[in-house]
Amino acid sequence: MKALCWTGVNETSVETVDDPTILNDHDVILQVRLSTTCGSDLHLLGGYIPTMRAGDVLGHEFMGEVVEVGSAVRNHQVGDRVVVCSFVACGQCWYCQNQLFSLCDNGNPNPALTEAMWGSAIGGCFAYSHALGGYAGSHAEYIRVPYADHGAFTVPDGVSDLAALFASDAAPTGWTGADGAGVAPGDIVAVWGAGGVGQMAARGAMLMGAEQVIVIDRFPERLGQVRQYIGAETLDYSKDSVLAELKERTGGRGPDVVIEAVGMEAHGTGPAYLYDQVKQQLRLQSDRPTALREAAYACRKGGSMFILGVFGGVVDKFPVGAIMNKSMTVRGAQQHGQRYIPRILQHMADGELDTEHLATHVMPLDEGPRGYRMFKEKVDGCVRAVFQPSK
User: Fold this and answer.
1) How many CB atoms lie within 10 A of CB 151?
2) How many CA atoms lie within 13 A of 143 on its CB side?
3) Any alpha helices (H) in the chain, and if so which ranges?
4) 3-state secondary structure of 375
5) Residue in 219, 208, 171 with CA at minimum distance from that of residue 356
6) What is the C-alpha separation between 25 and 187, in angstroms, rounded?
7) Does residue 167 carry a pLDDT above 80?
8) pLDDT over threshold 70, residue 391
9) Cα 190 from Cα 177, distance rounded (Å)
10) pLDDT score, position 386
11) C-alpha angle with apex 84: 80 to 89, nearest 5 degrees?
């Protein structure tokens, strides 16, 4: 079959690879209908995430049709149209039973590296390096889905393939941030990053009752989508002082909740950004915490900060003094999608959640390398490149 593979730092290629097969009775094989790029993929392309190997199939956000079913699968049959959570979870371990699905004890068959880095291994994720399981990704004609009864979800008839695609990762990641941050009715929420995840965090916060949501970015096409499709306020950090503007918009207090949806390659302005960039390029720190640092300073006293963007290792100049002295609550997570995907699909079916607008560039899988270049370089207003493996 055809698949889009990682072949080196900032290099991808469409290759012919082996078709997937059932390896466990709980697997299904999916014919991929749609698969999309994700901002966290750029960390793989740039060489910031270790244990990638030439020939690894990329892609972790996808939907498709079931074409083969393992003998122990109970919730799916051939012909089902499903969306699949990007994180692999068994549904049975202590973490899954407590709905902490991205921490599943059984989802990652290669736990040694993350145990050494973080003290404990987290779950597995499709195509996100061999440290997170070494699973083949979704930028392919077919994909094996382990623990399908717990990770694949039937798409309602009224929800399009393109809308459902973003229930795989972008929307549940956003919901993880808004819910994990404790967004409550009446809250003022600020979100750093207007990509797919940031937009979904903002919309999730609104559906959870937030009174005011402000999304911070610098790309006009993304900020325009926030205003048109999400219904939140926007703030362009390249034109305005974020801290001063947030104080002004919140009566001098600051947001109740801040959500960082950018991650380890955050852009910024001023000396602090240049400092972070140099240190990362010299590998003196693994991540750029530019947006995370700003979010911590912006949050009101006694407020909540959620780290939603992907970070891999260590950062410098983290404002722990501000966090401690302002009595802030800080949490973070990879997405617990199995907890949120059913309600997200229902929001879509009820017309309360728009996602199709994120797919600014839809193309055949053969054009995958071009799609990733457009996505990385923000060419032609690209918010997400979506691939159609069957085209």
Assistant:
1) 28
2) 35
3) 41-45, 94-97, 112-118, 148-151, 161-165, 170-180, 196-207, 220-225, 242-249, 271-281, 290-298, 320-325, 337-349, 368-377
4) helix
5) 171
6) 46
7) yes
8) no
9) 12
10) 98
11) 120
